[in-house]
């Protein structure tokens, strides 16, 4: 399996060439921004090798584009923009993962084009800008966002990542002929693909636009990308109330990890302040990854020299069950995460796809108030909950010291077993229909 996703692999068997071989693989990892594997057998693990290669730094920059080809691509992009009446920008996962966010945000502010993100591109753009339009995810998208994107006549799609969850089960509707598709090593203008690195193309495009302002009156964002519904304090906690409320809790310097499923979709409805970094996983659907990931986030925050502040995890109780032991590491390394656990009686997103009342979508019941004591009894921790009503959540978010306790904090959010963000409900239905169609194709006479 690894060969399909790795940029390079090596198995070290010859100590004299080991350093060069390791450097080769590491250089490839940095250039491709993809995983690599280095295999090291036990019998040579302690062999001494030359330190001379350490004098040569790992190459982290991309090869420069062919200047003539880059100029051609820039000219075609500018021509497409000039001919368009309603150009827009979509910032996707590839922009976040391939280090072009500084260029992207400069482009967004320079052009004032209506700008959108996908679930995977969340936090890639300053959501406080007046031209920020919201999150695009196909069928489950806010009507204003969907209409603006799908009626546009020029789409600058930066880091397009068309996976199933990222596209609302392939329900996005943007025509190829109007799209400029920016990828790490290529830019596709309409149907023509050019082998140029998007980072340099974006940089050159920005230089051109500074000298030659785009004569456009971009469509105004007249809708609220993050609509808020009000509920009385006594109403049971609902997803419609949870996600906009959670947005008010985030602040610059936070790193937020959204678990696969309901959490990742729900966080798309939370407005992020400028300076928040968020990651979710809309590629492999690997539930449980987020609880382990927050350990790495906590360690990186410690080493960031104050740039980053709080590690925040948003996960479901079913997903947390897979990697709950990581809480022990959070406590013993004093990483001080703030964890929001959606306790909705099982795998809600799976219930909405298939098996609404099936026993296989149920999970064991935990006592979340006792988790920290069980997994790190010698370390300070705080439990908040269970949060059962809209009023409970409002009170907690206003509580002095919440989120700044200086220790592990866990919030238990009790939600209805079939309550989910609208995007989850629509995507779940799309996945169910997709699966049924596949079955019908494989069944004789179907």
Structural domain count? 3
Spatially, the strands of the biggest sheet line up as: 5-4-3-6-7-8-9
Using the 3D structure, state the CATH architecture of the largest domain.
3-Layer(aba) Sandwich
**How many beta-strand elements?**
15
Q: Structural class, judged by helices and strands?
A: alpha/beta
Our count of helices gives: 15
Strand content: 15-25%
Evaluate the radius of gyration. Answer: 24 Å
Q: Low-confidence segments, ≥5 residues, pLDDT <50?
A: none
- Overall morphology: globular
Query: Tell me, what is the CATH class of the largest domain?
Result: Alpha Beta
- Spell out the CATH superfamily of the largest domain: Thiamin diphosphate (ThDP)-binding fold, Pyr/PP domains
Compute the average pLDDT: 92
Distance between the termini: 32 Å
Q: What name does the CATH topology of the largest domain carry? A: Rossmann fold
Helix content, binned percent = 25-40%
Labels describing this entry:
7-stranded mixed β-sheet, 6-stranded parallel β-sheet, 3 domains, alpha/beta, 446 residues, 15 strands
Descriptive account of the structure:
This protein has 446 residues and is α/β, with parallel strands linked by helices. The protein folds into three domains: 2-55, no CATH class; 67-211, TPP-binding domain (Rossmann fold, 3-Layer(aba) Sandwich), CATH 3.40.50; 239-429, Thiamin diphosphate (ThDP)-binding fold, Pyr/PP domains (Rossmann fold). The chain has helices at residues 15-32, 67-83, 93-97, 101-111, 143-150, 198-211, 239-247, 262-267, 289-302, 317-323, 326-332, 348-353, 371-375, 390-398, 422-442, and strands at residues 8-12, 36-40, 87-91, 115-117, 132-135, 154-158, 179-182, 187-189, 192-194, 255-258, 277-280, 311-316, 338-343, 381-387, 408-414. The protein has a seven-stranded mixed sheet with strand order 5-4-3-6-7-8-9, with helices on both faces. A six-stranded parallel sheet has the order 11-10-12-13-15-14, with helices on both faces. A two-stranded parallel sheet has the order 1-2. β7 and β8 form a beta hairpin. α9 packs parallel to α11 (326-332). It is globular and about 65 Å long. It starts with 7 loop residues before the first strand and ends with a helix. The relative contact order is 0.10. One of its GO terms (biological process) is aromatic amino acid family catabolic process to alcohol via Ehrlich pathway. GO terms for molecular function: magnesium ion binding; pyruvate decarboxylase activity; thiamine pyrophosphate binding. This is Pyruvate decarboxylase.
